[in-house]
Write a structure and sequence with these properties.
With about 500 residues, the protein is of the alpha/beta class. The chain has two domains: about 5-230 and about 485-505, Rossmann fold (3-Layer(aba) Sandwich); about 250-445, Rossmann fold, CATH 3.40.50. The protein is built from 20 helices and 15 strands. The protein has a six-stranded mixed β-sheet, sandwiched between helices. The longest helix is centred in the middle third of the chain and has 22 residues, at about 230-250. It is globular. It starts with a strand and ends with a helix.
């Protein structure tokens, strides 16, 4: 298995290289050069596997010769032993929807599924390189990432104390929840550095991309990525789409084809669903659920991918989705460019892939220069055959939380999950046309206790009373009172580069 960049200038890369480098040197994102084939009996042989074993089967399809099956199995077993639920990602049935609970990891967010695995993967590859080293060099990695809340804590918990790994997490000052901030800044391991930036998540993400674009700095510090630009993040998340499918089949019968509704900011979570569907998982539709920061919903309606430049990033009750540009969308765009925009390939089979890379470079250059680009109607039609989308206002977010808390059985949604549930409700007529009304699975991306202010406000303003202590995980008790460590830095790549150099030199 080899990997190429979406922008066409890099190809033939190994899985290990892709994991450790994160972002391609041409600024693109790594994708597989081809998708593997599922085993012919996957629907029966995988149907009852525990989560870690299922993850090992899926991940092994993508690693080539870089990992032996036993090594993958060991990595997944260790990664998912840290979760608080035996099923890792249990499927819960409510009267109107199913909820896929992805928040049973160490930091109570869906990103634990990928980042527990990625942390172990980093450590494994570095230790192996150091064992094989003959020139006395010590292989290290400096992880630099941006977070709107959950990525940061999940990355920190996945990488804290790891050998030869230094971690720098940038977060927008005042734009993460108190619990999210505390989860990050109360981790005092020597290799963990939290950095507060005055700005937005997009500012933090732009700084990270700029640092990766500085080739000398990148090589000097062996930069590694933990944001979902790292392919291993997407790969690990494919597993829970298969796991949810098998749970639904056991409940609804062998013909069940789920509609997955995914709260989406940076497009990584739902992109894993796209790959699951592309591999052959029976999926009726993938639904992108956005809050007021709705670049993806607007694209699915118009074919124009356009920043909301005048308004900027809007602050909402679902802050992990407060993103102006969805970085992972570039991966899906490559497939649109390849299948719908590029000309028919020549006999050598290369032209179509090369042209897709050129189209992506052109689109990304237009986005950077003008704030938008437009795809053809053919591409838009192709996107709509895979994705539906919908938008949820702040008011609807609060009301959805309140209604599900007041319902029987009572269920507490976090504000991101509420966005997905609201969009599922608005699309109910279209879902019924598919005959999939009993097959709707909303991905629940975080524990409601991480967003206590939004949840309490929603219940209180709609006449309810919530005993928050009753749903508070024991790991959160006293968290806000623990000692903290956090660096502050100017909103510029130069300032962050200087800070990284200063602390790695120590």
């Amino acid at each position: 298995m080899k990997y190429r960049s979406t922008r066409g200038q890099v190809s033939g890369q190994s899985f290990e290289t892709v994991v450790l480098e994160g972002l391609a040197s041409d600024g693109g994102l790594f994708i597989p050069e081809h998708l593997p084939q599922l085993p012919s009996d996957w629907q029966t042989s995988w149907a009852t596997l525990p989560f870690a074993s299922l993850a090992a089967e899926i991940i092994s399809l993508f690693v080539g010769d870089d990992l032996a099956p036993a090594e993958v199995a060991d990595l997944t077993a260790r990664s998912y032993a840290t979760f608080h639920h035996a099923d890792v990602t249990p499927l819960v049935q409510l009267p109107s929807v199913h909820i896929l609970e992805l928040f049973h990891g160490p930091t109570f967010a869906f990103k634990d599924v990928a980042l527990q695995f990625l942390g172990n993967l980093f450590e494994f590859f570095l230790e192996r390189r150091n064992r094989q080293e003959t020139a006395g060099r010590v292989h290290r990695i400096t992880v630099v990432g941006a977070t709107s809340g959950d990525t940061g804590s999940a990355a920190i918990y996945g990488l804290r104390g790891k050998k030869n790994v230094e971690v720098f997490i940038l977060h927008p000052h005042g734009r993460v929840s108190p619990i999210q901030e505390a989860q990050m800044t109360t981790v005092l391991d020597a290799n963990v550095h939290n950095v507060s930036i005055e700005g937005t998540f997009d500012d933090c993400q732009d700084i990270v991309k700029q640092l990766f674009g500085r080739e000398e700095f990148r090589r000097e510090h062996s930069l590694g990525a933990i944001n979902s630009i790292n392919w291993a993040r997407i790969l690990a998340q494919i597993t829970y789409y298969f796991y949810a499918y098998f749970a639904l089949v056991r409940e609804q019968g062998a013909e069940a084809k789920p509609v997955f509704v995914v709260p989406s900011g940076n497009f990584g979570d739902i992109l894993a669903g796209f790959y699951a569907r592309s591999l052959g998982l029976p999926v009726a539709r993938l639904v992108i659920a956005t809050n007021a920061n709705d670049i993806l919903d607007r694209f699915l309606h118009s074919g124009i991918y356009e920043k909301n430049a005048e308004a900027g990033v809007l602050a909402t009750p679902s802050p992990a989705m407060d993103i102006l540009v969805s970085s992972n969308f570039e991966r899906f765009l490559w497939y649109l460019a390849h299948d719908s925009e590029a000309q028919e390939e020549e006999s050598d089979g290369k032209k179509r892939e090369d042209e897709a890379g050129e189209i992506i470079r052109r689109w990304m250059d237009q986005l950077k220069a003008t704030g938008s680009f437009k795809v053809t109607q053919k591409s838009l039609d192709a996107a709509r055959r895979t994705f539906w989308s919908g938008r949820c206002s702040d008011k609807d977010t609060y009301q959805t939380i309140a209604r599900y808390y007041a319902a029987t059985p009572s269920y507490v949604l976090d504000p991101h999950t509420a966005v997905g549930v609201h969009v599922a409700e608005t699309l109910r007529p279209k879902i019924e046309e598919l005959g999939a009304q009993n097959h709707v699975i909303c991905l629940s991306t975080a524990h409601p206790a991480k967003f206590s202010e939004a949840v309490l406000k929603a219940v209180d303003e709609n006449g309810g009373v919530l005993d928050f202590q009753a749903i508070l995980p024991e790991q959160f008790v006293g968290l806000l009172d623990l000692p903290r460590r956090c660096l502050t830095c100017d909103n510029s790549a130069d300032a962050v580069a200087q800070l990284v150099a200063q602390h790695t030199s120590k």
